[in-house]
Structure formats: structure tokens, C-alpha cells
């Protein structure tokens, strides 16, 4: 009976010690967790090489680790990665996350950078849940870079390499190779022909140089002629133009004087046309009548002599039968 009581006592003591050890462990976990902060990262790409416990680096400095990886159920194309970092790491607005490979081991880490001095720390609203904090912790935005960028662009790169290979295969087909060989042969012939005509080409180039020099001399002479023409215009033509302008001005003044004289004589001309011209017409009419009368007198004198002007003409004698 006494031995049984000892076993019960020992068992009770062991259970109490285990319970105290568990409580102490939980207390240490809570104490250590108070110096760390958790964040969520939603990667729209494969997270190969990232596992629970993978390191988290801020600007290359180890700062925490990955605590959870899971698919984001509302949108399965995203992978949610929960990280825990030291509280003294400056996770500010503008901080971004990428996946970087570590050496050639196939292991990857989450890299953080982009914090700007003076920016506000990433935090959730007071209620703890929002569009930016769907799981109650702040969300760090992502950017493509490193392994993620390579993995995302790998299919496009492979497609372009395949297309380039196909085009190179078509370019290097038997028919194209024959064409290229013909082109090279024609090029060699052309080179040989140019080499044979080297002296002629040299002579042509020499003549071209001479022609260019002559053209330069002609251009210089044309410039001198233009300068001479400008001098002649300045010394001879301009004085003549000045005299011509004076003559035109004098003629204009004479025309103005003539217009003034005509204006002054216009009343006399009007009186001449209204009075003198009718009188002259009447005088001409009277002269015409006088001329007709004198013609009749002369005709009478010619017929009957001067006596016909005094008396009436003599009647012929009448003789009875």
C-alpha cells in the first residue's frame, strides 16, 4: 500500500513538472513573438524553392522567416505567403517583396526592399480586417524580379527561341544555301571586275576631283560677279533711279498745274460754247446766203450785161402774121 502511494506521488510530481515546462515554453514563445511582426505576401507566380522556414531578407540582411504557405482560396492564381520578421525591420509603405534564388541549390528566399525614409509603416486599420488586410495582418505588395521574372518570361522566351530556330532552319535550307552561294559567287565576280577596272576608276575619280575644283572656281567667279553687280547697282543705277524719280515728280507737278489751268479756263470755254459758237454758226449761214446772192448777180451780168441789174429784161418784139 505504501509503495502504491509513492508511485502516485511521483506521477503527480512528474505531471506538475511537465505542466510547468509547457507553460514556460508557451511563455517563452509569447515573449519571443512580441519582438516580431507578421505580414502576408500574395505572389501571382510560382513560389518554387520557398518553404516553411525559408529565410526572409531585407536589402540582403536576414530579418525573418516564412511561417506559412497556402493557396489564396478566393483567387487560386495567387499564393499566400505568411512571413515573420523582426520588429526593428523598417517595413514601410513602398516596401515590395520578390523571390530570389540562393546560389544553385534550388532554395529560394523572400527578399524585401524599397522602403523610403519618412514613409509610414505598413499597418492594418483598427478593426484589423480590410481589403489590404484580408487575414488581419498587413500585406506587402510584390514585384517581379529575379527568379520570378525568369520563370514568368521563360515560356515566352522558349517560344521565341523556337520561332528563331524554325526561321534559321528555313533560312539555311538547301535552296537558300544555293542562292547564297550564287550571291557570293556574283560578289566575287564583281570584286574581280572592279579590281580589273581599278585604273579607270582612279582616272574617273581624278576627273571628278578636277570637275569639283572647276565648279569651285566657277562658284567663286559667280560670287565676284554678284559683288560687281551689286557695286554697279549701288553706284550707277541708284543715281539714275533718283533722277528718274525727280523727273516723274516734276511731270506730276506739271500735270497738276495743267489741271488747275483747265479748271480756271472752264467757265470761259463754257461761255464760248454757249454764245460764240451759235453766233459763228449764224455768221456762216449769212455768208452762205450772201454768196448765193452774189452768184445770182454774176449770172445775171453774164446773161444780160450790166443793164440787167438796173431794169427788168426787155420783152421780145411781137410780129403779127
UniProtKB/TrEMBL annotation:
> Superkingdom of this entry's organism?
Bacteria
Q: Where is the Mce/MlaD domain?
A: 38-113
A UniProt-annotated Pfam family: MlaD
The record's listing under InterPro entries reads: Mce/MlaD
Q: What is this protein called?
A: MlaD family protein
Species source reads Sphingomonas qomolangmaensis
